[in-house]
Amino acid sequence: MSLNVWKCILIIITLFGLIFLLRNITTGENWKNQIVSALYKVQNWNQSSNLSGSLSTFHHKSTFCPHLGKPPSPEEELEQRKLLDSIAWPQPPSDSEPLNLFQTSNPAHSLFSIITSKNNHTWYVGDQLEVQIHLHDFKGRPKNYGGDFLLARLHSPKHRAGVAGQVLDHKNGYYSVGFPLLWEGSVQVDVMMVHSSEAIAVLRRLRENRPDRVLFVSLFRSGLTSETTECGTCLSQDKGPLCNFTDLHSGEPWYCYKPKMLSCDTRINHARAGYLNNIITDRESLLFQSGVNIKAPIHANTTNTITVLPSRKENSNQKSDPMKLATSGYYYQDAWRPLGGVAMRHFNAASVTQCLANKVVYMYGDSTIRQWYEYLVAVLPGAKEFNLYTPKKGGPSLAVDSTHNILLEYRCHGPPIMYTAIMANELHYIANELEGLTGGPNTVVALSVWAHFTPFPVEVYIRRLRHIRKAVVRLLYRAPGTVIVIRMANPRALNRDVSLNYSDWFSLQLNVVLRAMFKGLNVMLVDAWQMCAAHHQPHNVHPPSVIVKNMVDMMLSYACRTSTRKTG
Question: Which domain holds residue 161?
Answer without folding.
Answer: 103-202+293-316
